[in-house]
Amino acid sequence: MKTIVVCVVYFCCVLLSNGKEVHETSHIVSLYRDRSQKNQPGRPYFHFRPLKNWLNDPNGPMYYKGFYHLFYQYNPYGAIFNTTIVWGHSVSHDLVNWIHLKNAIVPTKSFDINSCWSGSTTILPGNKPVALYTGVNTKNQQVQNLAMPKNLSDPFLKEWKKYSGNPIMTPPDGVKPDNFRDPSTAWKGRDGIWRVVVGGLRSNLGVAILYKSKDFVHWSLHDEPLYFGKNTDIWECPDFYPVSVKSRDGVDNSVIRINLKYVLKASFKSKSHDYYTIGSYDAENEKFLPDSKGLTGSSLDLRYDYGKFYASKTFFDSVKNRRILWGWINESDSSADDIKKEWAGIQVK
């Protein structure tokens, strides 16, 4: 089997806390000052995290108009996982120095009133970013929703609006309403139709549930999943993307050409680790074909990282022609310790 190398760039992240102002074309944004950092033993200074409270999955990292955007699962009320989770949002020129913005997507509607869970961003033609995310509705069912920026001229994308027709995907037959989450970054086929996968569990099989759309608004369920695996429990945070076999350069999700392999990654909830497999994409039959045994739930499955690393998400950096991987490290502190120190979780890339 030919080995494909996916570069995982573990850059260090420094939170700005000098209180300076950042000037851009239309407004001034004051950076948050964290006056308590020096009194927090063990707090990371070089890996990304918000100034306080709980953080988990990275959501839809992307590059837009001079800024790298990082969205992430965030509890605005405390340092442990909460029944109310929102999309936190920070931006950076260089993936090192970060500006913390107000939360991007928060529970406000019947389709997400109990939380705005993980998802992804996709850049549509015309450089128009959109977000797909899992909402927990009034019945505690997991449904998929669409959001988009209010003002495309704002490079910070500070304000987001939700599609009035949400939800755009609901749990299909055979999938329990609490086992349907985490839509991937979408890709477009030669036929001009968009594809996206959602993680799930059906008939005790972890599945990458495939949906298709002509307009990114109206989605139809494909007859069969893109891929499934045994002995894995639910698949969370699926990721699917091409890699070149001729170059170390990254490849955009929608690129279709020869000399490509595809990576399918899933986060196995029962194991709390990220696993991936490499193979080919049969676009005509909408199937991922692994080069080896695929994702089996056994110790033979490949892992991105062999430490505490979960719910990862990649994006294509068109500026430097590379693919960057973000992942969540949950650390090992107790909930009591997290509450005491007022923060939990970091992001690495």
UniProtKB/TrEMBL annotation:
Signal peptide per UniProt: 1-19
GO biological process terms, semicolon-separated: carbohydrate metabolic process
Family membership noted in the UniProt record: Belongs to the glycosyl hydrolase 32 family.
Gene for this chain: CWI3
Lineage, broadest ranks: Eukaryota, Viridiplantae, Streptophyta, Embryophyta, Tracheophyta
Gene3D superfamilies: Glycosyl hydrolase domain, family 43
Molecular function terms from GO: hydrolase activity, hydrolyzing O-glycosyl compounds
Protein's name according to its UniProt entry: Cell wall invertase CWI3
Annotated Glycosyl hydrolase family 32 N-terminal domain residues: 47-347
Presence of the UniProt keyword Heme in the record: no
PANTHER family linked to this entry: BETA-FRUCTOFURANOSIDASE, INSOLUBLE ISOENZYME CWINV1-RELATED (PTHR31953)
Keywords: Glycosidase, Hydrolase, Signal
Record's keyword annotation contains Signal: yes
Superkingdom: Eukaryota
